Amino acid sequence: MPNIVVIGAGVTGLTTALLLARRDGHNVTVVAKHMPGDYDIEYTSPWAGANVLPMAEASNDRWERRSWPELKRLAEEVPESGIHIQRSVVLRRNKDLALHGTAGRRLPDPLFAAKPWYADMFDDYRELRPDELPEAADSGSAWTCVCINTALYLPYLVGQCRKAGVVFRRASLKHVSEARGMSHTGAPRADVVVNASGLLACRLGGVMDAKVQPARGQIVLVRNEIAPMMTISGTDDAEDELFYLMQRASGGGTIIGGTYAVGNWDPNPDPNIANRILERALKIHPALKGKTVKDLDVVRHGVGLRPYREGGLRLEREKIDGTWVVHNYGHAGWGYQGSYGCAEGAVEIVDDILVNELSRVSSKLH
Ligand code: FAD
After folding, report:
1. Per-residue b/e over 161-177, b at no fewer than 16 CB within 10 Å?
2. Ligand 1 center from residue 203 Cα (angstroms)
3. Which of 94, 186, 202, 233 has minimal CB crowding within 10 Å?
């Protein structure tokens, strides 16, 4: 029976471990420095909203396209997952569209395309009529989407993993090769190690990926229940300041963001940025018309560091010190919305290694 050790208990590691453990006969161990329940600047997943705002280029839509059906199914059929259905509104300003794609812009342009590839992914995607647009926007679109309450969804994933036989261990690894001796089965050497270390892939020995750096995201969580979810193509405050808002499932409050500051490691919420985040929400979201900052009941201010990677995701195999390692990191701002697609991609690579490199028989998903 193959022994697989997954480094990381963020959304990437947990989803990959789950899909691996659902294959007959796989012994899966997750080793992580941070686990669901922790709030730490080195651990991105708890800080996300999270929702599904497709960011890939049309030529690279596999990860998000393959993830959507499962996230939708969870929202519709599995209330304990902490995912619920929410209407999503994406707004565009002509002045931002003119700038998109120009040097120095890091925002995910494909989200704001007028005829995006993802229009056919959602059942009811449509362009908004001019009379439906808030003052701040020149055009926009809407569809039925989901919002993930990450405070509930991450523990849900742990539960699903446990049910499928995954064993969790706490450890902070200095080198990726330490993982191969950490299978809960006591096997001296795991067959495959999956590296889902997120942002810390830039510090993990044996990986030290210099292309990985943080894309700092500051948010405010408020108790107010505000719908629909909304985002807009740009703001007038700063190039790395954004507006998005999403109401989390099951009393999780509403997340208001945000920022996308590449290279910024600052773990502390900046009060001036927080104030601008709230002011933008009041200005843009129609449900907040006539309200002031005092009407927004703050639960907490937060900062999360998205695992940005120059050139994008790293999903590939590498032999390190004689052990096969499957890398699955560098998801920047789309780790949840691409989680099932990427986990499926990682499982395909693990399978190929087991069958073709190690001559082990693999079995089908059940
Ligand atoms: P992480 O969650 O950081 O997990 C990494 C894991 O690896 C941790 O368990 C860590 O302890 C472990 N690890 C690392 N190094 C070691 C080591 N040396 N030894 C042992 N363990 C180690 N995504 C969306 O899809 N939709 C959204 O709406 C969205 N909104 C976001 C909003 C904000 C403000 C932020 C910050 C992010 C948002 N994201 C969103 C992005 C998403 O949160 C990330 O892409 C995702 O969480 C990355 O998950 P991960 O598992 O790869 O990394």
Report:
1. beebebbbeeeebeebb
2. 15
3. 186
List ligand 1's pocket residues with C-beta within 6 A: 7-13, 31-34, 43-45, 47-51, 171-173, 196-200, 204, 217, 219, 257-258, 304, 306-307, 329, 331-337
3-state DSSP helix/strand/coil % of the chain, to nearest 5: 35, 30, 40
State the pTM of this model.
0.96
Hey, what are 231's tokens? 């985002």
Q: Can you give the pLDDT of all 366 residues of the chain as single tens digits?
A: 999 999 999 999 999 999 999 998 899 999 999 999 999 999 999 999 999 999 998 889 999 999 999 999 999 999 999 999 999 999 999 988 777 655 445 455 789 988 899 999 999 999 999 999 999 999 999 999 999 999 999 999 999 999 999 999 999 999 999 999 999 999 999 999 999 999 999 999 999 999 999 999 999 999 999 999 999 999 999 989 999 999 999 999 999 999 999 999 999 999 999 999 999 999 999 999 999 999 999 999 999 999 999 999 999 999 999 999 999 999 999 999 999 999 999 999 999 999 999 987 554 443
